[in-house]
Design a protein that fits this description.
Distance between the termini: 62 Å
Order of helices and strands: HEHEEHEEHHEHEEEHEH
Mean pLDDT: 82
CATH topology of the largest domain: Rossmann fold
Shape: elongated
CATH superfamily of the largest domain: von Willebrand factor, type A domain
Strand content: 15-25%
Number of helices: 8
CATH architecture of the largest domain: 3-Layer(aba) Sandwich
Number of domains: 2
CATH class of the largest domain: Alpha Beta
Radius of gyration: 23 Å
Strand order of the largest sheet: 5-4-3-6-7-10
């Protein structure tokens, strides 16, 4: 019983630390950029008022004008409320981290920053955690208590699956979200099976989701996934399939080929997502994540030609 209480206390403490840290980042670095980029779905009709010199002629409400015998114009207000939907990969490959932070830890922090940015602007936040199945679904809601529940689930949910099925998950997203939302897909995009088949299926899924919503991919990587150290013969295990291969890292050609294949995979993923109109943010476990997020918001804020 004492161990259970200690565990619960430790979780509350780490949750509080994460909330303080991420809210500070939102206040100092993210809030203004978030608001300027995600401005809501458009303009809502508010009321009509009598025409004043200088008003736009195209805003005249001709029906009211005809009935009143004098000119009235429509008044609009910005519809600010958005739905931010976090789709977070918690498969076994996310447990890898060559430094102080694993990929899943990084995903949790980034998701927390996005969630707190959303509630600061009175937007709704929803969540799907997934592996090779849907692990957790929280419908979009507002408020600090709801966001803390979102963050707690990202941090502490124990997944039942080990693999990754991003395609099926995006199909579920399209089914449960009936109104347009900003969907952040946070994943390392590791897949098993035939790479060619997986690539075609992923392109189809992101294409369909991006047509219905505003899909943004956050690609989480660890430097050891791109560069092998020179430590002799090592065994690499695929966390999701259990497959083990041995590599002789003492050979420069082996290290170079590993690096080339990793870089090519990342480049191909970025190109595929770009071809489907999906923005991608690269995040690394060995580097601060706020600068790439700020660059993304800055680029999103520029007029597109």
């Amino acid at each position: 019983m004492a161990d259970v209480k200690q565990s619960a206390t430790a979780k509350r403490s780490s949750m509080r630390e994460l909330e303080i840290r991420t809210r500070r980042m939102v206040d100092e670095s993210m809030a203004g950029a978030y608001h300027s980029v995600f401005k809501g779905r458009g303009m809502d009709f508010d009321e009509v008022r009598e025409y004043s010199p200088g008003d736009e002629v195209r805003t005249i409400d001709w029906n009211v004008t005809a009935r009143a015998g004098r000119a009235f114009v429509k008044k609009f207000t910005e519809e600010r409320e958005l739905t931010i939907f976090l789709v977070v990969d918690i498969s076994a490959s996310g447990n890898f981290g060559s430094g102080a932070m694993a990929k899943r830890d990084l995903a949790a922090e980034v998701a927390s920053v996005l969630a707190f940015s959303a509630i600061r602007n009175s937007d709704k936040v929803g969540l799907i955690l997934y592996t090779d199945r849907i692990e957790r679904y929280l419908p979009p809601k507002k408020g600090r208590r709801h966001v803390l529940r979102v963050v707690r689930d990202i941090l502490y949910h124990e997944p039942q699956g080990v693999g990754t099925d991003t395609v099926k998950t995006l199909d579920v997203v399209n089914h449960v979200l009936h109104r347009r939302a900003v969907v952040f897909l946070i994943s390392d995009f590791e897949t098993s099976g035939d790479p060619g088949v997986a690539r075609v299926a992923l392109r189809r899924a992101v294409r369909q989701t991006n047509r219905r919503h505003d899909l943004i991919a956050l690609h989480v990587e660890d430097p050891r996934e791109k560069e092998l150290p020179n430590v002799g013969i090592i065994a690499l295990e695929d966390a999701e399939t259990g497959e083990i291969i041995e590599l002789n890292t003492a050979r420069a050609a082996v290290r170079r080929r590993f690096n080339e294949l990793s870089l090519e995979r990342s480049r191909r993923l970025r190109n595929d997502l770009r071809a489907e109109g999906v923005d991608t943010v690269q995040l690394r476990t060995d580097a601060p994540y706020i600068p790439p997020l700020q660059r993304f918001f800055k680029s999103r804020g520029r007029p597109r030609v």
